[in-house]
Structures are given as C-alpha cells and as structure tokens.
Amino acid sequence: MEQDTALTFDSKKFAFKYATIYTSILAIILITPLIIYVMLLLQIDQAKIELSLQEQSKRVISSMQQFNNNDQVYHFPRYKEYKTAIYTSQYEEIFSNLDFEPTSFNEGIYNIDNHYYLIYSLPNKYYFGARYLIVSTLHTANEIYLFALLTILGILIMLFIFSLLLLKNFSAPFENMNTQLDNFIKDSMHEINTPLSIINLNTDLFANKHGNNKYLRRIKSASKTLATIYDDMDYLIKQGRIKFNKQDINFSEFIQNRVDYFQEIANLKNMTISTNIKNDINYYFSKTKLQRIVDNTISNAIKYSPDKTTIEIEFYKKDDAIIFKVKDYGVGISNINKIFSRYYREDEAKGGFGIGLNIVKDIIDEEKIKLNIKSKVGIGTTFSYTFPIIKNPQ
C-alpha cells in the first residue's frame, strides 16, 4: 500500500505530533525549576548528613571522656545507624566496625559508595592514644531521585494528555472543513469526468463525420490537457487509499500509445515528436503509476517547448535496466531542485497546478527508479529514467 499523502487531514496524526512538540516545550519550561529544586534538596540532604555525623562524633567523644581509667575494659559505643573507628597518628587501627577502608585521614566529610564518613582529629594520646575518630553512616538520596522521577513523569503525562485533548478539539473544525473540501474535490472530479468523456467522444464522432479542422484540433488538444490534469488529481485522491496493482505491461507499446495520444497536442504547436522505441520490451509495473510518469514527462516537454521544435523520445534496454528518455529543445529549467515541490511551476503563465512532477517524484522514490535531469536555460531539457528490471513474482 502506498504512503498516505492524500488530501485528507489526519487529525490524530496532527494532534499527536503537535501534542508531543507542545509537551516537550512546556516540559522543558516546567522541569527546569524542578531540577533546581531537586539540586537544593540534595544540598539540604548533604547538610543534614554532615550535621548528624558531627552530632554522633560528639556522642562518641563524650562517652570516651566519661570513661574511668580504673575500669579495666572500655566498651566502645555501638549504634544501629552509625559505624565508628579510631586510629593512631600512624593510621593504625585501634578499634573499628567500619565495613570499608577510609581513603583519607584529613578532617572533613567523605563519601565512598554511599558510605558518608566524618574524620575528626583528636588531641594527641588523650583518647587511648587515638589521633583520628571516624564516624560513618550509610545513606542514599533515592527518595529524592524517586520524587523527582515521579514528578517528571506526572508532569509529562498530564501535559501530554492536556495537549492532546486541546489540539484534538482545536483541529476538529479543520478536520470537518478538510473532509468537506475532500468530498467536494472527489465529487467535482466525478462531475468533470463525465463531460470530459462526452467532449472527447463527440469530437471524434464529429471529426469522422465532417472531417478535421484547426478548431476541432484545439478542442481535442485542450480536452487532452484537461484529462492529464484530471488524471493527476484522481491519482492524488486515490494515493494511499487504494493499492495500484502491478501487472506485466508491454512497455514499448504503452509508450507508443502515449506518444500517439499527445501527438495531437504537439501538432497544434507544429511540433515534431521523434521516437526511437525498441519493440517488445515488457515490464512488471503498475499501469496507473507508469502513465503518470510518461504522461507528465511528455506533456511538460510539449508545454515548455516553443512552436516548431522537436521532442526526442528514446526507449531501450541497457544491461539490467530499461531506459526511458525524453529530450526537448525548450526553455530549460532554472532550478531543478524546486520542480518536484508540490504546486511549484517553473512558468506561471503555462497553467497547470504544479502537481505532476511531485507525483512523479513520489512514484520513482517508492519504486527505486533513477531519474537523471540535464537542463540548460534557453537550450532544453532531458529527462532520463532508469527502471530496474523486476521479475514478475507470478
């Protein structure tokens, strides 16, 4: 199934896309102060740890000060949430129930794998010959990080739901208007098809009965130009909604038929279509898509070429590819990169909607068809398509 680039307005995609953008912008605005707040919480948490370690060190020192030297044994105080240790000035352990090794003996607060510890310098030989007191506690800031994570998720979810509902309601009128416009275009296309068919049929009947003349040729040329535009619009409407089935096509015969179709338009400008089409080259492809490529290329060559010039069409097989080439001696292309943009027209005076080559670009990109364009302003343009040979899966 082709990519959906039809004329309809997809409100769900619109709402989801812009809700995501809107949520991201608001989230950045709201989460920035949250991050600052979390950093302050972490600093406060750090200060609380330092204060608790200092208070605990005072308790230990007080306990050692109250020790009576007449007692034979000093029972070093133990605490559930704290670990303690004392070391000599030579960093020799006197007592320790730490479950880690200190990395420094300078006074201050340290952290090893969430083990926060305070090093406090003691007077020399006053406390059992100890020089350093270490008080440690195991602490993590998981609660703060969990709070931050849940808050961020809550903000994102609430913002996204709010944005999605807001944008869906906002896009509803546009969706209704676009649906009405889409229905109008489809109805109009259907209404155009009937009189266009009648014009073509009756001009042929009139020509058979009364002979051809320049006025009749102009009518037939105009109706064929209109038919090409109609086919482009019809393809756009169906694109992404229906599957264009592939089949085995006599590519050589197909191109010759399209050349014959446009010959009448070329004749009106006294132009010559020179062809070099190799016979009996078959290709497995969608007939609808192939017609859009061939018709838009030939019609543009005629449209942008002056009267009494020649258009050269070549079609042949080369190695593992099929080459379709259209060369004109027209006005040339000033900006090749822009010609595939929808609604872009190189010359506004030439008419049309500027959708033909945009359709061609979509098709060749999807079907992996290579296109080489050579153009010089005032000299002419050559479109060269390289179709990869695909075996019929049947």
Topology (SSEs and partners):
Layout: H1 11-65, E1 83-87, E2 93-96, E3 108-112, E4 115-121, E5 132-138, H2 142-210, H3 214-238, E6 246-250, H4 251-268, E7 272-277, E8 282-286, H5 287-303, E9 310-318, E10 321-328, H6 356-366, E11 370-376, E12 380-388
Parallel strand pairs: 7-9
Antiparallel strand pairs: 1-2, 1-5, 3-4, 4-5, 6-8, 9-10, 10-12, 11-12
Helix pairs in contact: 1-2, 2-3, 3-4, 3-5, 4-5, 5-6
Account of the protein in words:
- The protein has 2 domains: 1-172, Beta-Lactamase, CATH 3.30.450; 245-388, Histidine kinase-like ATPase, C-terminal domain (Heat Shock Protein 90, 2-Layer Sandwich).
- 49% of the residues lie in helices and 20% in strands.
- It is built from 6 helices and 12 strands.
- It has helices spanning 11-65, 142-210, 214-238, 251-268, 287-303, 356-366, and strands at 83-87, 93-96, 108-112, 115-121, 132-138, 246-250, 272-277, 282-286, 310-318, 321-328, 370-376, 380-388.
- The strands form 3 sheets. A 5-stranded antiparallel beta sheet has the order 2-1-5-4-3, with helices on one face. Strands 7-9-10-12-11 form a 5-stranded mixed beta sheet, covered by helices on one side.
- α1 (11-65) runs antiparallel to α2, α2 (142-210) runs antiparallel to α3 and α3 (214-238) packs across α4.
- The longest helix is centred in the middle third of the chain and has 69 residues, at 142-210.
- Residues 1-8 have low confidence and may be disordered.
